[in-house]
Structures are given as C-alpha cells and as structure tokens.
Specification:
globular; 26% helix; 374 residues; Rossmann fold
Length: 374
C-alpha cells in the first residue's frame, strides 16, 4: 500500500504575537539594540570598502516599514554570497572590540540569506551593531515523528548486495539455489545462510578487500546518519547477511555512531545467530525482534529496506521505506503494508520531515516468516 503524497508542512510567513514568523512558522524574536545614535538607513560601521552593496546583487538597504507587528524597522533583506569579510562591532559590558566575521558564517543563522530580520526603528546601523551573541544560533529543528531508524545493509545502506558479490566471486555457482529455496519456504533462512557461508573459503582479508573495492555505500547514507544523529535519533544497521564486512565498510566511509545488529562470522563453527529469535529459525537475524526492541527503547520506529528479509521488519515498524523497484515494495503491496518509496537517503530524510502522522505497524502473530525448529 503506497502511502499518498504528503504536502509540505512549511507555512507561509505569519504574525506570532508581535514577533515575526518565518516561512516555516518559526518564531523570530524582536531585537532591541542599545540606543546611542539615530538610524540613518545607511549600511556602514566597520564594513570593508570593497563590499559592493548594489541592490541588484541581492542586498537592500534603507528604512522600510516592517510587517507582522514590527513597524518602521530597518530590514536586512539578504546577503549575497560575497567573498569579503564584514567587520561587526561586538559590544560587551564596558568595552568594545572588533571581530571579522565572514558572511558564510551567517549560514547557521537560519538561512539569513533568504529570511529577513526586522529591527526597531530606534536601532543603530543594523550591520554595524549586530553580532552573533545577539541573534539565535539556530531555530529548533522540526520534531520528527520517530525515535529511531533501522536500516538494512545489503542493497540499502550499501548500493550492492555484498553477500551475493562475495558468493559470486568466491563461492559455488549453486549459491543462488539456496535463496530460491528459502523464498519458497522450502528451507529456513539459517539453513540457507549456513550453507552459503560454508562456500566462502578464501582468506577473510581477501574477501574484505574485494568488498571495499567493489561495493560502495550509498553516498547519501553517511549524511543521513549525521542528520539523524544531530536530532538525537539513533540509526541502527540491521542485516541478515554474513556480517563480517559491515563494520569495515562503514569504517572505510568514515560512518561512525551506528549500532549494528547482524549475524556472527565464525569460520570453523559456522555462522552465529546471536540476534535470532529465541524460538523461530526462519531468519538468522530477526528483524521483527529488532524493530520491537527499538520500539521498547525509543518509541516509534522507521524501517528502511529493499529485500525479501526486510518484509519482516517492515510489517512491525511504524513507517516503512521500501526501495523503488525492489522486492520489498512488491511484498508490501501484496501484504497491505503501507510504505514510502525511496531511491536514496535524501528521499528518506524528506519523507520523515514530511510525515505528520504514521501509518503504524501492520503486526500479526506469528510473523509470516515463522519457522519452528526441526
């Protein structure tokens, strides 16, 4: 069940109790600056002589009646991307100093290049007297509807199915027969994985080098992890693969701070299923269990995947992102699981930002992948 398109939640400019709201509905404080001289509507006060203030380049000056409850204010309509620094006088108690601040430093001030600040008419020269201590460093980020994100690895965080590439390069040509038998329900997932892992007899270092050289991560995954972590939303990689290559691939792409739930690689004893269900043997790593444990710890959970084993996580997540054109989206359609399609993690980020409500888990017991030990 494909979730319908959700409208952008950004709002137009509005008035918020005498304070000015930006186009996203955030509240902007009014700025009362020290009163020592009359505003003359001219931008000066420590600005470099080579700073061109041509209005056609995107910077407007002069007195303008403010809106949204601020009257007669001097308004900074925006700074162009100028290469020069601007000298801003920072006023402290009993002293004054000069500090050069590049215009690029204003980027953190909630897109000052496009969102204007209204200043009271009694204020000083708005550029000469504004300093970072007088402005909010940033506005609160949108509160996201989930407390955690679980991400599959092969074909999701990674652009390739690493296990399939390793089996094709180092395994027996019959490896794909086990996948087919598992999807038909003829064998359990643990049996399939164990039989395939036994085919990989090459040195571990050689297989890791092959994986790093041939299986790049999605280039938008790292930025997505950083974006999520900046909002205190943990990202956990959940994989029902061979496991040994995930950590090195994340390290190779300098992705840190993610938890990992996967199978244990043991050359002699065979794969270890420390993250499997205590009773069901349908999968090696139980993604249903991973979702439910994350819900118990963090509340609502988003699940991002692409393949057949991901449907067991998708069914119990609060919202699912299924990669377009891959088997998970077909399983979701067949089983009535609401989902949002994605191509890269920019789509996942936009989807999370645009969701006002979540479809919630489909649930159902037992899990469709349930398989009793034989």
């Amino acid at each position: 069940m494909l979730l319908p398109h959700l409208p952008d939640l950004h709002t137009s400019g509005n008035t918020l109790g005498g304070e000015e709201g930006d186009r996203r509905g955030h509240r902007r404080p009014r700025l009362d600056l020290p009163e020592s001289r009359q505003a003359d509507g001219v931008f000066h006060g420590g600005m470099p002589a080579d700073l061109d203030l041509d209005p056609e380049e995107g910077m407007a000056t002069g007195t303008e009646h403010g809106t949204s409850g601020v009257q007669g204010g001097l308004r900074i309509l925006g700074f162009p991307n100028h290469t020069s620094a601007v000298q801003l006088r920072r006023r402290k108690v009993g002293e004054r100093d000069e500090e050069a601040i590049h215009l690029d430093d204003f980027a953190a001030l909630d897109d000052l290049c496009t969102n204007a600040f209204a200043l009271e008419s009694r204020c000083h020269d708005p550029v000469g007297e504004i300093h970072p201590g007088m402005l909010p460093c940033s506005y609160p980020a949108r509160v996201l509807p989930v407390g955690a994100v679980l991400v599959d690895f092969d074909g999701t965080a990674c652009q390739h199915d690493v296990a399939e590439h390793l089996l094709s390069e180092f395994g027996d040509p019959s490896w794909s027969d086990y996948d087919i038998a598992w999807e038909r329900g003829e064998i359990g997932g643990r049996d399939a994985l164990s039989s395939q892992a036994a085919m990989l007899s090459a040195p571990l270092s050689e297989m890791l080098r092959f994986a790093i050289d041939h299986c790049p991560l999605d280039p938008t995954f790292g930025p997505f992890v950083e974006w999520s972590q900046a909002r205190d939303i943990p990202v956990t990689v959940v994989s029902d693969g061979f496991g040994f290559y995930i950590g090195p691939l994340l390290d190779a792409h300098a992705i840190v701070g993610t938890d990992l739930i996967t199978n244990g690689w043991r050359r002699v004893q065979g794969l270890g299923f420390q993250n499997g269900h205590p009773e069901c043997v349908g999968c090696g790593t139980c993604k249903k269990q991973a979702v439910e444990r994350a819900q118990a710890s963090y509340g609502r959970v988003a699940f991002v995947g692409d393949g057949p084993s991901d449907r067991f996580g998708a069914r119990y997540a609060d919202v699912t992102f299924a990669k377009g054109g891959e088997s998970l989206s077909r399983h979701c359609e067949a089983e009535g699981i609401p989902y949002l399609p994605w191509t890269d993690f920019n789509d996942v980020r936009a989807g999370l930002e645009g969701l006002a409500t979540l479809p919630g888990p489909v649930g159902g017991e037992p899990c469709p992948g349930w398989r009793d030990p034989t």
